[in-house]
Structure formats: C-alpha cells, structure tokens
Amino acid sequence: MKIINPEKPKDLNELQTSLSKLDQRLQGIAADMERTQIAEYVDLLNRPRTLIWRNLLAGTARGVGIAIGFTFFAATILYVLRILGALNLPIIGDYIADIVRIVQIQLEGKTF
Description:
Structural class: mainly alpha
Order of helices and strands: HHHH
Shape: elongated
Low-confidence stretches: none
Number of strands: 0
Mean pLDDT: 84
Oligomer: single chain
Largest sheet: none
Strand content: under 5%
C-alpha cells in the first residue's frame, strides 16, 4: 500500500491521480465487505428470534447426524465383531462373543 504524501499536490493532475487511487481502493474495500456479508450478519444479530431459530435447526441437524453416524459405526463394529467371533479365535473369540450376545440381548429389550 502506497502512502500518499501529505504535502500539497504540485498540480491538479497529481491531485486527480491521488483521488482516483483512493477511490479505487475504497471500491475494493467496499467489494470485500460485501463479499463477507457483514450486513446480513448484523441484521441477523438484530433479530434474536431468527438467530435462535437458526441455531435450533442447526443443533437438531447436528444431533440427528451424530445419531445416524454412530448407529452406522456401531452396526459396522458389531458386524466385524460377529465375523471375528465366528472364527473361534482362542481368547479374543470368547470376549467378542460375550459382547455380541450382550448387545443383541439389549437390542431385544431384555436385561442380561
């Protein structure tokens, strides 16, 4: 960024050039601010009900996404454990079989 000399301009052309550069710089700053959507953000902050509603929807969506993701992850782990349990590995197989049996009983709604 070039700093404009604070002395009086020597002629009118130099003044016009300086003002033109200043105008271009201000237009660039205005365009940058428009891209960041500061006006929409300030408007949202001035309407607390809209802000609360959007945060409520975002939180609900995150919660549902986490629930679906964890369900998929747990099902995959149980599937792998069931396959490993079927291999009849000496020590690990017994623990895996117990875990799978406990989870299946819990899914059926019974206590073990």
